[in-house]
């Protein structure tokens, strides 16, 4: 796996707060212990020397953490804490922040050593509401220093996803394919998240492709790298230089057009006109870009590309986008369902856009069978060549989708499960997914809430991070599978 670019680095500032009628030394001493525990976990943290008691302290703390390069913060209530100044700090800092508080350490020191931060967290939360601030608040936000350090470790992952989305620009080429209305969603909710959107035509893409045709040295170098990556799986070597030219065109465009944004993704038209104009399918190039940290979603699915990018940031590993595609035949023998029932199984499939590091050994560059039926049914594969096909690596995964609805609302789903260790006996980039309770989830969330057929896949368990990140980004409707006995709102309770 190549090093991933296009990924924010979190530097976490930790600032202690103290109410002036409580001993400031309580916060200082407790913050020192929290920092020691964070360093033991090797977290990217810096401490703020200012303890916030007043508004002036809040302003000074913002200046110090900005000077130290912090792009996320933990506001730590070492005692009851001043809810006004601490929320002023959060507002002026303007970056993702977490609220956490100190638990009392011992029953032998509950007079001068009692901090009452359990009480202070309530007032801090109220004041966040008054100032329309959205903090990340852990499930159990009051704890001893080692507990707070573990909360901070999780928040680093959550903040990375949020910072990536807030600094993101989506590049799209072409309109959505016919009969793929599911990929067509309003872009206003993307702007609400802070994402910039740059839409281009297929003609722009063709001009871009031709504009780098004379850069033969770079094209040959990329084609050589492709050949080395594919090895024995290079079944269509005659296509490599054209694919390399396309990759060079996209990466050149990416670097030249980020503008005010730090990060970017693609969501491109990939059929049916593409093949006739370019002479290949773009899937393998999409897989290589995703492997480097630049998701390139199929079928101009902008929300799919954003979802894939969020999976990448949550897992710190290349991700992919797949169709929630087909059922698993009853006669397919599977030794271990990983806690799922047969009715919870499905196959995740796409033409060949999944990075090589996410596929089993033996994957290869082939031709797209469905497109071949449509475009070259009586000919040898030619313009439909360029997919990277193979079985998805078995192991723990998370499926995730962020979606803008027809009426411009944001909604999301997230579910943890496994890619099962079984040959899917089919074509494309494909694997058998086992997600506990997915059968009911499919009916009462994916279908009921009108989610499209694409889902993003993180190749490490990332559900907890993605759920908290979506919540911190302000997504109001986030769904996860419900266990048996807990009906969905649309579910007939007599069937549960």
Describe the protein's architecture and organization.
The radius of gyration is 25 Å and the shape is globular. Helix 5 packs across helix 15, helix 7 (202-211) packs across helix 9 and helix 8 (216-230) crosses helix 9. It contains 15 helices and 18 strands. Helices cover 37% and strands 20% of the residues. The protein is α/β, with parallel strands linked by helices.
Quick recap of the structure?
The protein is α/β, with parallel strands linked by helices and 496 residues long.
Rounded Rg: 25 Å
Rough shape? globular
Estimate what percentage of residues fall within beta strands: 15-25%
- Say how many strands there are: 18
The number of helical runs is 15
Compute the average pLDDT. Answer: 96
| N-to-C span | 44 Å
Low-confidence stretches: none
The order of strands across the largest sheet is 10-11-16-15-14-17
Helix-and-strand structural type: alpha/beta
Q: How many domains in all? A: 2
Q: Main sheet?
A: 6 strands, antiparallel, barrel
Helix fraction, binned, reads: 25-40%
